[in-house]
Amino acid sequence: MVTGTSQPDRDWLAAVSRARDGDREAFAALVRQFSPFVFQVAHSVLWNVQDAEDVAQETFLKAYANLNGLREPRAFIGWLGRIARNLAQNQQRRRRSHPESELTALEAETTSHITDPPAESLLAGEARATMEAAIRELPEHYRTALLLRVKSGLSYEEIAAVLEVPVGTVRSRIHSARKSLAAALEGDPDSRRSG
Amino acid sequence: MHVECEGEWLSSYLDGELGAEQTAEVERHLEACPACRASLQELRQLTEVVGRSVPDAPQGLADYILSAIPHPAMDHQAAGAYVSLATNLGIGLAMVGAALLAVVAPRLVGAWRVLQKFIRIMWAAGTWQVSLDRVLVAAGVLGLAALLVAGAIYGTRLLNRMGEVSL
């Protein structure tokens, strides 16, 4: 179950059914509940806040247009996550084929289309930079699995549906990601103390 | 299950992703193994730091997304009905407009002639060297151009609206 909400499962399942029948308010409720998760999927691939926001918007537009093709409401999280991941990967490919856009991407890495107060929860300074660099160095499929667990609170089964791999693979990727991060941060005691 | 100092089990235990039996076995092992207790604590700290190192979704994200979602929401069937209604309404309005024009046109022509006469009288009193006929032609062309631009803007809006509905 995606965290950041107290809505029980049956509520979002009912909202998926209603949205599928054309209820815009139900779809808006789904956007409010699942947009942080979609953002994390896109951000873990692109590592760029603005691009992740755009991909999140595009994901929900696509979901809105195709929701009536979703047969089983319970499959919604995996389906939505796969749309977001595919769009983010397409964006990543476009970015690689146009290297000049890399500069803009770097500039936009921590800025947003949406004016928000600075996130208080972020670590300050060097410790944050070290951890961020270590996370960024992870292979994308390890990083996404770990961040969907840590940031979005998805179960291994839900992550497996997004990544289209068996649950055992998710278990092993998350463990490997943690192991790699621990190794990368071995020589940086500041990062550990910040926890 | 073999859990002795096995990191993958500790990672899954931390995430609450083990079954009841496996959880109990890991907990028994943790009671007896200080090294695994320390590893679990490190994993927990590491996970917290990871969570705080990655940005959360911006607070206004949902509104940003919803601003792009077409409104009102309609399914394809309703969109079809809407387009059909708009077409019929357009045809109806055009017919009413044509009928009104047929009734009013003679009066408009009369009024236009009176207006032309008035302009000519006023023009004759002026000192401008420009031909009045040219001025009237230019005014006619400008009026026609304004009508075309207004038509293009209205047509584009209508097409956009239909595009939104059919999404």
Strand and helix map with partners:
The complex is a heterodimer of chains A (195) and B (167).
Chain A: H1 9-20, H2 24-46, H3 49-66, H4 76-97, H5 101-107, H6 125-137, H7 140-150, H8 156-163, H9 167-184, H10 189-194
Helix pairs in contact in A: 1-2, 2-3, 2-4, 2-7, 3-4, 4-8, 7-8, 7-9, 8-9
Chain B: H1 7-14, H2 20-32, H3 34-53, H4 61-66, H5 76-124, H6 132-166
Helix pairs in contact in B: 1-3, 2-3, 5-6
Global structural class of chain A: mainly alpha
Compute the separation of the termini of chain A in Å. 25 Å
The major beta sheet of chain A can be summarized as: none
Number of distinct beta strands of chain B: 0
Stretches of chain A where pLDDT is under 50 for at least 5 consecutive residues are 190-195
Beta content of chain B: under 5%
Q: Helical proportion of chain A?
A: over 70%
> How much is the average pLDDT of chain A?
84
List the quaternary state of the chains.
heterodimer
Query: Percentage of helical residues of chain B?
Result: over 70%
The structural class of chain B is mainly alpha
List the total number of helices of chain A.
10
Inertia-based shape of chain A:
globular
Biggest sheet character of chain B: none
| Amino-to-carboxy terminus distance of chain B | 52 Å
Strand content of chain A: under 5%
Q: Could you say which overall geometry of chain B the principal axes of the C-alpha atoms support? A: rod-shaped
Radius of gyration of chain A over all CA atoms, rounded: 17 Å
